[in-house]
């Protein structure tokens, strides 16, 4: 667990797109709807940069509700939030696999 | 049904235009999120986990076929083909894009609908008995009262910035189907025991959430004509003295609790005496104009018993079962109210697809004087169906996958959206409802168990009304895992009661078995014809606690082993 006022590590920056509300992840160069593209902060300096970017992107009217989320890596090395709330946020409603990001990823994974 | 006059129409259209401009300014950067948030909330737009959410008002739960069709159109055009009916008789869409919301509001305005008073610290959309105008135990249809309060409270300049949200429910019946005991204000229409005049019993300070409290009667009889002045007095006392320093202590229930109900009532009466009643109370002509919209439809003269229905039931056990659970007696001979259960086994409580909405709209138009209701149990109601038509209505519902015969039974579960959608939730609700419904899916067994209300909330805000469930389930987080507290003995009826916790929280996968144990205690202890809640009241919590705790302990031991 992160200490007070300390960003969680390792972590990614998660937000909702201002226009359509979709969950987005901060990448090295912008925002992506895919968690696999997320830039992972492994150290405090990178996490601080992501925090600064959260504030800046909010000011630029790109996103809303931007915050850092602690992650672990899955077998393929992709970031997976450690908390169930954020996992649901990166996937979609758990009772509706046909909706949310999981819907787009499931067929792709099956191919 | 109420129809907009020129003022209603203009007001709603202006609000759409204002919000379109506010969205444009948000998108071009002139408004920050901080500035925009209170504006979007005043128009029903929330930001949830995966997307924005739009909450649409269904005043006192009454809809026409045309309105439900429009909701179906919005579901298809701007959402993901479905909507969610809520415990406040409203409907929510889970996936709208912010840029599309003004267009959605236009479509709503076309059918006299809007999202006003579905959010924010204002007097919220007023709810009412879903069997209004139907029930035999009703002294008067509560909807003219609810509509009057809607008109009075909409944009009331004095009450736009209350300490917190404010919810009003109205019933005109002896049996409380509107849960008036757990609203900020609950109104019960009744006749004065001596004069026979119509008036209201006024309850104030009920509510669920983190501090559940049953409302207190502050006025045993308020003459009907004095309603608005009295409500204004209640609102003034609350607006002036309700706490603004702590959001969790800002509801009127806390004020009533802190002052004591007698002192609160005294202050309301003092304010009421100061007010100029005639300038606030509604003009009798306006009251009559509103009431005329709710005049009973043109019923036919029919025999009390339908030979056609009886013959059909005799040959169709599925229809007979459906009539037993989903059909409510109508005050008018030969008619019935049909509850369309949105609690399909395997579905999400309260969800309906666009196709299902159209199917119900068709039935309302063809068989129910073009009227339907949303119940706070998250079901739909066809309020005025000829008993002769019940076989045809049942067949049409079955064809649409909407003939689930479980109203009031163990699988008719109220559940908030929970963490599958809601940004405030601490745990999921829908999968819990699904696993419990799956466990008790056998219709014969459901009938055998009889009336049993299970209510599930995914956080302490209690949108799923868990405190007043016969069995309540509250989802919390414990050490990074979802954990569920079980309460027993709650009651949303006129015998309002808050459930008590049975023991430690349990894991999600243990919930169906825990419910099973409670049902076993009931089945072993019940007297002839005694319902779950009646047995609970008679034998008390202890036998249930013992069964629950021995189950919970065993689960903990097994997990440790």
Automatic annotation (TrEMBL), chain A:
Region named Disordered: 89-111
InterPro entries for this protein: DUF2849 (IPR021270)
Species whose genome carries this gene: Tistlia consotensis USBA 355
Descriptive protein name: DUF2849 domain-containing protein
Basic and acidic residues biased stretches: 89-99
Domain of life the protein comes from: Bacteria
UniProtKB/TrEMBL annotation, chain B:
Keyword Iron in annotation: yes
Name of the protein described by the UniProt record: Sulfite reductase (NADPH) hemoprotein beta-component
Lineage: Bacteria, Pseudomonadati, Pseudomonadota, Alphaproteobacteria, Rhodospirillales
Transmembrane portions of the chain: none
Keywords for the protein's UniProt record, in alphabetical order: 4Fe-4S, Heme, Iron, Iron-sulfur, Metal-binding, Oxidoreductase
Residue ranges annotated for the Nitrite/sulphite reductase 4Fe-4S domain, each copy included: 119-273, 411-548
Signal peptide (from-to): none
GO molecular function, one term: metal ion binding
Keyword Hydrolase: no
Domain Nitrite/Sulfite reductase ferredoxin-like positions: 52-110, 339-400
């Amino acid at each position: 667990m992160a200490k007070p006022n300390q960003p969680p590590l390792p972590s990614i920056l998660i937000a909702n797109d201002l226009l359509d509300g979709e969950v987005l992840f901060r990448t090295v160069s912008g925002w992506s709807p895919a968690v696999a593209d997320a830039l992972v902060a492994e150290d405090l300096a990178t996490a601080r940069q992501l925090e600064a970017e959260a504030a800046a992107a909010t000011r630029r009217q790109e996103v809303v509700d931007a915050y850092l989320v602690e992650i672990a890596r899955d077998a393929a090395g992709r970031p997976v939030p450690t908390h169930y709330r954020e996992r649901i946020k990166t996937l979609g409603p758990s009772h509706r696999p046909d909706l949310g990001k999981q819907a787009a990823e499931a067929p792709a994974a099956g191919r | 049904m109420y129809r907009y006059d020129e003022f209603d129409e203009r007001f709603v259209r202006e609000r759409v235009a204002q919000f379109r401009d506010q969205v444009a300014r948000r998108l071009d950067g002139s408004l920050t999120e901080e500035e925009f948030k209170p504006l979007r909330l005043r128009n029903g737009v929330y930001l949830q986990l995966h997307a924005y959410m739009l909450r649409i008002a269904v005043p006192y739960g009454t809809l026409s076929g045309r309105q439900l069709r429009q909701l179906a159109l919005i579901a298809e055009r701007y959402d993901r083909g479905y909507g969610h009916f809520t415990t406040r008789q409203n409907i929510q869409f889970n996936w709208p894009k912010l840029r599309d919301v003004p267009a959605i509001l236009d479509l709503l305005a076309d059918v006299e609908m809007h999202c006003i008073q579905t959010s924010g610290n204002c007097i919220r959309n007023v709810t009412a008995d879903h069997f209004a105008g139907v029930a035999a135990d009703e002294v008067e249809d509560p909807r003219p009262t609810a509509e009057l309060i809607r008109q009075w409270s909409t944009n009331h300049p004095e009450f736009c910035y209350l300490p917190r949200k404010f919810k009003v429910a109205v019933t005109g019946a002896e049996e409380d189907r509107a849960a008036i005991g757990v609203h900020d204000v609950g109104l019960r229409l009744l006749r004065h025991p001596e004069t026979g005049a119509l008036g209201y019993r006024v309850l104030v300070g009920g509510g669920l959430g983190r501090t559940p409290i049953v409302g207190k009667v502050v006025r045993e009889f308020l003459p009907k004509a004095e309603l608005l002045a009295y409500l204004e007095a209640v609102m003034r006392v609350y607006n002036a003295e309700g706490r603004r320093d702590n959001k969790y202590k800002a509801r009127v229930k806390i004020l009533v609790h802190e002052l004591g109900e007698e002192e609160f009532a005294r202050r309301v009466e003092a304010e009421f005496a100061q007010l100029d009643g005639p300038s606030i109370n509604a003009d009798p002509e306006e009251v009559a104009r509103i009431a005329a919209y709710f005049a009973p439809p043109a019923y036919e003269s029919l025999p009390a018993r339908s030979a056609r229905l009886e013959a059909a039931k005799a040959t169709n056990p599925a229809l007979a079962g459906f009539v037993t659970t989903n059909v409510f007696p109508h005050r008018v001979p030969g008619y019935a109210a049909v509850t369309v259960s949105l609690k399909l086994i395997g579905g999400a409580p309260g969800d309906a697809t666009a196709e299902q909405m159209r199917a119900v709209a068709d039935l309302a138009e063809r068989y129910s004087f073009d009227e339907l209701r949303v119940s706070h149990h998250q079901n739909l109601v066809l309020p005025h169906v000829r008993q002769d038509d019940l076989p045809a209505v049942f067949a049409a519902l079955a064809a649409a996958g909407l003939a689930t015969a479980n109203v009031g039974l163990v699988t008719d579960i109220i559940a908030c959206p929970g963490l599958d959608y809601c940004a405030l939730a601490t745990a999921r609700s829908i999968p819990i409802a699904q696993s419990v419904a799956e466990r008790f899916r056998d219709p014969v067994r459901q009938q055998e168990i009889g009336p049993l209300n299970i209510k599930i909330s995914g956080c302490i805000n209690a949108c799923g009304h868990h405190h007043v469930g016969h069995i309540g389930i509250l989802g919390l987080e414990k050490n990074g895992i979802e954990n569920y507290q079980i309460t027993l003995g709650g009651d949303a009826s006129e015998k309002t009661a808050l459930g008590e916790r049975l023991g430690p929280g349990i894991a999600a996968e243990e919930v169906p078995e825990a419910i099973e144990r409670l049902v076993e205690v009931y089945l072993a202890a019940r007297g002839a014809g005694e319902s779950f809640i009646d047995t609970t009241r008679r034998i008390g919590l202890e036998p249930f606690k013992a069964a629950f705790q021995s189950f919970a302990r065993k689960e903990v031991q097994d997990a440790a082993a």
